Amino acid sequence: MRISAVALIIALAGSLISCSSGEKEFKKHPSGLYYRFLEMNPQGKTPKIGDILVLSMKIMNKDHVVVDESNFYRMQLNNPMFKGDFFTALALMQVGDSVCFKLDAVNFFEKNRKHDLPTEFHQGDPVFIYIRFKNILNSEDLESERENSYHTDFEQEMSLLKNYIELTNTTVKPTASGLYYIEKKKGKGAKAEVGKTLVVHYTGTTIDGKVFDSSLTRGKPLTFVLGKRQVIKGWDEGFQFMQAGGEGRFIIPSNLAYGKDGYSNLILPYSTLVFDVELLEVK
Questions:
Q1: Which residue of 23, 109, 120, 235 could cross-link 231, Cys pair, CB 3.0 to 4.6 Å?
Q2: CA dist., res. 256 & res. 251, Å (int)
Q3: What's 43's domain CATH number?
Q4: Is residue 11 in a domain?
């Protein structure tokens, strides 16, 4: 029987709320992490170290506030960085499983994700991570996908971008130039205006989820003057929607980024880019 889209959304919302409620139902792994299986697929493939995992993921605090989500997330399974970490959690799953994990928020964000603790969390808080394990890609799969996903003209790029917008349930409309701006947290400080100096943290990915650059990894924010062509066009446009203290996501088609030439070996021609950004300061 086909389930309506509304019913599916309601069902998913219910599972996500239950993810962080009824904590007595969680089981404790010997490593110390807590988990609860929402769906199990005993016939699913078990990942091994080095595999690329295809996931949908939703991250919430103890008050059910969603702080990050993606229906199109990929990451490589690595050896655990510490006892009971996120890699330990992922290794418990098989393709087709849906699991809610309860981890220490500081360890997850600062050690696993190399990210400052979001404002929705405090020291000692748990983080609840809902994972649906969709698939495993090996190196041959990735090479084949690379050949199919990257393209030689703008029309092909727009087709892939359309699929990405649908897969990620993006509902905002693009600007006249084609930029998508998704507000995650509204800033309360000074407005970003042309000629102002901005201090920002960012993580940039291609739309297949591959990180190509991050100021967070370097541990140093980027400073630039807005509207003076010191950054790509998509940034000069996107940051004008923001105020200091704000966080957002830019989905930037190649005509506002590196176009038909790409950039070095990091960004191929006609590549749409996704940036998660935080505007730290406006000077």
A1: 235
A2: 10
A3: 3.10.50.40
A4: yes
pTM above 0.90, yes or no: no
Q: Which residue has the higher pLDDT, 266 or 72?
A: 266
Rounded CA gap, 45 and 47, in Å? 6
Q: How many CB atoms neighbour CB 274 within 10 A?
A: 22
d(CA 202, CA 222): 8
79 compared with 146, residue with greater pLDDT: 79
The pLDDT assigned to 13 comes to 39
**Is pLDDT at 20 greater than 60 in this prediction?**
no
| Residues with a known catalytic role | 202, 212-213, 232, 258, 275
Q: How far apart are CA 71 and CA 226, in angstroms?
A: 32
Residues 107 and 63 in one domain: yes
| Residue 66 and residue 72 in contact, taking contact as beta carbons nearer than 8 Å | no
Question: Is 143 inside any structural domain?
Answer: no
Q: Strand 126-137: give its sheet, edge to edge.
A: 27-28, 34-39, 98-104, 126-137, 52-60, 66-76
Q: Which residues contact 257 (CB under 8 A, 6 or more apart)?
A: 232, 233, 234, 267, 271, 272, 273
Share of the chain above pLDDT 70, in %: 84
- With a CB cutoff of 8 Å and minimum separation 6, the contacts of 207 are 72, 160, 161, 164, 251, 271, 272, 273, 274
Domain span at residue 126 reads 5-137
**CB 158 within 8 Å of CB 256:** no
For the cut 90, the answer to whether the pLDDT of residue 33 exceeds it is: yes
* DSSP code, position 265: T
